[in-house]
Amino acid sequence: MVAFTTKTDGTVCGVGSKVTLSGSIGNAWATETVTKTATAVLTKSDGYQIIIATTNSTTTDVATAMYGGGCLQGLTTENLVCNIYKAVNDTNATKIMTTAQKAVWVLAADWKLATGRTVALAGTAITVIDTSIVMVPNCTAATATFALLPACTDTSGSKKTSVQSLTYFQPKEDPKKTYVGVPRFSKGDSVSMYGPSEVGTDAPNTIFAICGAAVILTGASALVAGAAVAFGAAALAF
User: How many domains, the chain?
Assistant: First the structure.
């Protein structure tokens, strides 16, 4: 795979971000395991799956009460998908933990506003029912209790080498390429990645800055089984 890397000053998007797309023929992707919880996925999706993996968005470990993650946008007119988390001290103040993780979509019109890039923190949730979304690790808990969330310590999201990912089935392809909610990313799309800004520039780094723009998704067509789409300029091993 290929990935977005950091800006030259290293202030946003941390080590980098990756996107992988894969298609499926027919409904083989909609297994009993998938549809048991994602009860609307067969009507909402055609099996075109996306994985968005992001790393810590600063040059150092995310400080307590700081944000990490990133947002992906097609062109500058499409809605965005964001994976966001917050790093806080655990209840015993012995570890930095990843909490309050959210997978959301944000209206492009809101993103363009002067304060628009703070709206990623209040976007609309991407639901399991519609998309079968999976977060790895799942750090959605609001309370940082190490005993209950061992996978959400600083080894799983709050260090610059840590990875968090979203995997979900995208909306069915619209002939007009118009998506009012969760957007769809496909081969040939021009995409940009944004991340929370450097810890030292604003508190608590809620303004998202761009770290890669106008990168073209390449690869096989959407509905070719097992096809992968990669983007960026340099290979990245997390």
Answer: 1
165: tokens are 């990912």
Within 8 A by CB and 6+ apart from 163, the residues are 53, 54, 55, 238
Q: Is the pLDDT of residue 163 over 50?
A: yes
Pairing of strands 163-171, 190-196: unpaired
Better-predicted residue by pLDDT, 174 or 93 = 174
Q: Which domain holds residue 195?
A: 2-235
The single residue listed with the structure tokens 């992906």 is 72
For the whole model, what pTM was predicted?
Answer: 0.83
- SS3 of the chain: the string is CEEECCCCCCCCCCCCEEEEEEECCCCCCCCHHHHHHCCCHHHHEEEEEEEEEEECCCCCCCCCCEEEEEEEEECCCCCEEEEEEEEEECCCCCCEEEEEEEEEEECHHHHCCCCHHHHHHHCEECCHHHHCCEEECCCCCCCCCCCCCHHHECCCCCCCCCEEEEEEEEECCCCCCCCCCCCCCCCCCEEEEEEECCCCCCCCCCCEEEEEEEEECEECCCCCECCCEECCCEECCC
